[in-house]
């Protein structure tokens, strides 16, 4: 809840607003955790209320009378020792009531800590079109009172100090600089944290945008069979479109996994080529494949870039292994039964997704396996159709 205080006067059984009926002092203090506070509630003599009939509440809970002290017929104090952190940054409600429970006056208590030095300041540039930085609060990360963070920057040697303006609403402790970017001049960047109890500044980092470029994932990723090779698949892709006009030497990674597994195997030695052959795979198995890019050496930068996100998964299946006919009639019957059941499921799916014989291909079969893996609902519908 938000800390809201109303002052009232109680006359003729009716409450009406009056700013001078009662006052709580101090008003809206800001205190460190563990501090002590003595607050007093003064009521106007014309109200006809004696101080010993008053009581205090903190966030709606009545405080014990042992904490009270009558300072005068119109003044009652309360002493709070070892204050805990505020429950919300909007403050805690310390309220003075008359004997009937009506609110006379109140104050908001802000109990917290000064900010600590922000840490883990990290920056990156997507396609050299922006400069985005994120950081983490120092210490335990929570001051318990409203704390403001500002990302500051300037061009090294001759720039004037500026503040980032595009703070993220979805990613806390993050801001993007999108205007007046300089590609061949280092930046000095830091974060300032402040609240009503103090301030702190992060370490200054120095960087060149060309050294921290990341990009979109590679586009046009395709996975296909290599003839009838049972244990291999071919993967092809295109360089990120946004960097086609830049001078750089891309570095790529591929990862792939079995249809029924969540464990990825990563290939790190792809280099800057835009195709790769996966070998040592299981015959007759669907694989999911992803590719990502690291734009190394943009405009001659000597530092490695930052890896992009992985591309969307692309799937393909390896050919089934060729097997000799078994003399065991039971084994042969079980194998034929499994094959007939899978074929029947596939043909039922084709009726809904393929139009004409021209659509019948191994790619269509691969797409069916992908749909079966992605959607349990689709798999159940196919299995129910098989039973019918």
From TrEMBL:
MF annotations from Gene Ontology: cytokine binding; cytokine receptor activity
GO cellular component: CRLF-CLCF1 complex; external side of plasma membrane; receptor complex
GO biological process, one term: negative regulation of neuron apoptotic process
Domain Fibronectin type-III: 117-212, 217-321
Pfam families referenced in this protein's UniProt entry, alphabetically: EpoR_lig-bind, fn3, Lep_receptor_Ig
Domain of life of the organism encoding this protein: Eukaryota
Main localization category: secreted
Classification via InterPro entries: FN3_dom (IPR003961), FN3_sf (IPR036116), Growth/epo_recpt_lig-bind (IPR015152), Ig-like_dom_sf (IPR036179), Ig-like_fold (IPR013783), IgC2-like_lig-bd (IPR010457), Type-I_Cytokine_Rcpt (IPR050379)
Protein location: Secreted
Annotated keywords: Disulfide bond, Glycoprotein, Immunoglobulin domain, Phosphoprotein, Receptor, Repeat, Secreted, Signal
Protein family membership: Belongs to the type I cytokine receptor family. Type 3 subfamily.
Name of this protein: Cytokine receptor-like factor 1
Origin species: Poecilia formosa (Amazon molly)
